[in-house]
Amino acid sequence: MHIPRQRGRREPVILVVTSEPPPTLTMRAVLAVGRWAWKHRRAWLPTGISSVLLVVTGGVHLIEPRTAWAFAALALAPVGVWVWGMLRRRPTSRQAALWRALLAGFATASATWLALAAGFGPHRPALFLFWAVLTLTAQVGWLVARHLTFVSEKETS
What does the pLDDT look like over 65-95, one tens digit per residue? Predict the structure, then answer.
């Protein structure tokens, strides 16, 4: 360690050295996973939102399970919006129509899960499996969409 030469007042330099034990292997692994998760936090957004929604739905079920009727009424809204959009103006490409249809179907399935989980509880095995499939589908769709729409810095320059 190099301490630079003091100019002006000649006050002593106080160096504080802590005697922390070196991190254990478990702590190093946790830190590495935490750094990796923080670095890639945007890529895992659907999984994070889905996990928070699972916990919130469990709380809603415990507090007032009858809210499932309100969620059930909203479950068909995404398909209705998609049909209305298709009747009003058709998309220019088949790929856009496919993506919109898939998005409407996924949103309807998610709203259906929300209504069922609020009514019966997200802890039921069938609903938990439905949640896991929806989460996996959202995560894969998110990564594919990010990959297809990624613009590198070289292309924008």
Answer: 999 999 998 898 998 888 888 888 887 788 8
46: DSSP letter: H
Closest by CA position to 54, among listed 133, 145, 140 = 133
This prediction has a pTM of: 0.70
> Exposed, middle or buried, 57 (CB in 10 Å: 0-12/13-18/19+)?
buried
Is the distance from CB of 141 to CB of 101 less than 8 angstroms?
Answer: no
Surface-to-core class of residue 106, CB atoms within 10 Å of its CB (0-12 exposed, 13-18 middle, 19+ buried): middle
Q: Which of 43, 45, 46, 44 is nearest to 110 (CA)?
A: 46
Can you tell me which residue has the tokens 């998609």? 82
- CA-to-CA dists, residue 125 to 17, 72, 107, angstroms: 53, 20, 21
Closest by Cα among 91, 92, 117 to 104? 91
Q: One-letter amino acid identity for 62? A: L
Task: Indicate the length of the chain as a whole number.
Answer: 157
How many C-beta atoms surround the C-beta of residue 139 within 10 A? Answer: 17
Give the ranges where 121-152 is alpha helix by DSSP (H).
125-148
Angstrom distance (rounded) from CA 110 to CA 57? 12
